[in-house]
Design brief:
The protein is of the alpha+beta class. The protein is built from twelve helices and 20 strands. The strands form four sheets. Strands 12, 13, 14, 15, 16, 17, 18 and 19 form an eight-stranded antiparallel β-sheet that branches. A hairpin with a 5-residue loop joins strand 8 and strand 9. The termini are far apart. Bound molecules: flavin-adenine dinucleotide (FAD). Flavin-adenine dinucleotide binds next to strand 3, helix 4 and strand 10. The site of flavin-adenine dinucleotide has 33 residues, from strand 3, helix 4 and strand 10.
């Protein structure tokens, strides 16, 4: 299978642009606004130029051109994580959407994933062989950004973080050289890429291990939001006893009256529990009893092929403006549930579209034998909340609503933060343990001494 799209454009002899086969778009070009747009439409990114890489060689040429011309380089798959990129003045934005494709080897249960591949395409290719990748909730997130930043998905409590399923990476390092890195070749760089984010190299492909899985029992239970007190307290207790084969999310949802929402959601305020069960319908039915006893108005549980897991969370599948924030929780005792409800439950002054509490633990909380910079999450739950700033009034109010949530949950906040959910700038040291952060800084200093690569939640090089 070809992993690379054919060349699209060429400008030989134009010294303002790198010599690449893919398209280079400069400010003032007719498609400039389209080329620089991130998935998160709230982000107004203004790089020096955009290079649409059509091959790994294009990425290498862009990095060499940047070094020669004094630019820095940011690599972007989709722009889902664009909110925390620094100012892109003087930065060449290398976009990888044209560099997509998946080749699955069912014998070794491995897949080679080109840099621009979306989660849905990896999941679909793996499913053809009865295999699965621990993808996140959204099918149109880029595999690369998601995996380099950790990767918490529906298979997480059984199969751990996605980053620790990486067995090799094809990269362009800051010297413009293409390399394949793994546990033997450039092991420090390979370690840093697995959970350390995009600070260290431009990754042109990942080789990942897949897990055998054809189907899962999945669904959503929905109640009106005024039932949130009893539902959230019951869910928090319920998660204490679950096996690793169950991953679930409790949600407080406030849908605007938008015409493209389905009837049962449009304009509604709801509390939801979404869950994925990997051990079959009988186990699921037994475990779901305490939640079904609360008589949800909607119960969608059914056994489905793995690709349908991408539909469960209902993430938007097209670019939207969003403003979100997260925190990890050590525990979720009744007082923490009350704190959450005070900030975002029925009666709270909030217009956040969704406040999600993801159950972590299981394999997400255990150190696997072969792991990279992010071995585990030292927390029991992840809270992610998001608002859609459709009007200036909403854009002004959302930060206060997010802050109220942080405040209400502060007593239970874990020390650690999670790179992929951090949609506001934070101290990158908070993403890792002290020893891991020091090692990441040393890897950055060694592989990118001139700080060529710009990433969200950038790891700085070692101090001089
Ligand atoms: C709707 C939605 C749902 C989400 N669901 C989940 C979820 O279930 N679980 C979860 O863990 N996260 C989730 N996230 C967070 C998501 O994983 C991060 O935003 C992630 O960074 C997105 O990756 P991307 O490649 O699409 O984004 P991008 O913005 O393109 O990339 C983010 C960063 O990754 C790095 N990067 C990307 N590609 C490369 C490359 N080729 N080489 C080097 N560095 C690179 C860069 O540092 C870049 O700044 C979700 C986000 C959204 C908006």
């Amino acid at each position: 299978m070809s992993l690379i799209s054919p060349p699209t454009d060429h400008h030989p002899g134009d010294h303002r642009r790198p010599e690449v086969a893919g398209r280079v778009v400069l400010p003032g070009d007719p498609d400039w606004d389209q080329a620089r747009a991130a998935w998160n439409l709230s982000v107004d990114q203004r790089p020096a130029m955009v290079v649409h890489a059509s091959s790994a060689e294009d990425v290498a040429a862009a990095v060499r051109f940047a070094a020669a011309s004094g630019h820095r380089v940011a690599v972007q798959t989709t722009g889902h994580g664009a909110a925390t990129l620094p100012d892109l003045s003087g930065v060449i934005l290398v976009r990888t959407a044209d560099l997509h494709g998946v080749a699955v080897d069912p014998t070794s249960r491995r897949a080679r994933v080109a840099a621009g591949t979306l989660a849905r395409d990896l999941v679909a290719a793996a499913a053809e062989h009865g295999l699965a990748f621990p993808a996140g909730s959204s099918p149109d997130v880029g595999v690369l950004g998601y995996t380099l930043g950790g990767g918490i998905g529906w298979l997480g409590r059984r199969h751990g973080l996605a980053c620790n399923h990486v067995v090799a990476a094809e990269v362009v390092t800051a010297d413009g050289v293409l390399r394949r890195v793994d546990a033997e070749r450039d092991p420090d760089l390979f370690w840093a890429l697995r959970g350390g984010g995009g600070s260290f190299a431009a990754v042109t492909a990942l080789e990942v291990e897949l897990v055998p899985l054809r189907e899962a029992h999945i669904g959503t239970l929905l109640w009106p939001l005024d039932r949130a007190v009893e539902v959230l307290h019951a869910w928090a207790v319920w998660t204490n006893e679950l096996p690793d084969s169950v991953t679930s999310i409790a949600r407080l949802l406030r849908f605007p009256p938008l015409p493209d929402l389905p009837d049962h959601l449009r304009g509604r305020q709801l509390v939801a529990v979404e869950a994925v069960f990997l051990d079959g319908v009988a186990v699921a039915d037994r475990l779901l009893r305490p939640l079904r006893a609360l008589r949800p108005e909607t119960d969608t549980f059914a056994t489905v092929p793995v690709p349908r897991l991408g539909e469960l969370h209902g993430d938007p599948e097209h670019p939207v403006p969003s403003d979100g924030d997260h925190l990890l929780l050590r525990a979720l005792p009744p007082a923490a549930v009350d704190g959450l409800l005070a900030a975002a439950g029925p009666g709270a002054e909030t217009g956040l579209l969704a406040v999600d509490v993801r159950h972590l633990g299981g394999a997400l909380g255990r150190t696997s034998t072969a792991h990279g910079a992010l071995d585990r999450l030292d927390a029991s739950y992840a809270v992610f909340a998001v608002g859609v700033p459709m009007t200036p009034e909403l854009a002004a109010a959302i930060p206060d609503w997010l802050a109220a949530l942080q405040e209400g949950l502060a007593p239970w906040a874990a020390d650690q933060a999670y790179l992929n959910f951090a949609e506001r700038p934070i101290d990158p040291a908070r993403l890792f343990t002290d020893d891991r952060f020091a090692r990441l800084r040393a890897v950055k200093a060694s592989y990118d001494p001139d700080d060529r690569f710009v990433a969200n939640h950038q790891v700085p090089g070692s101090p001089a």
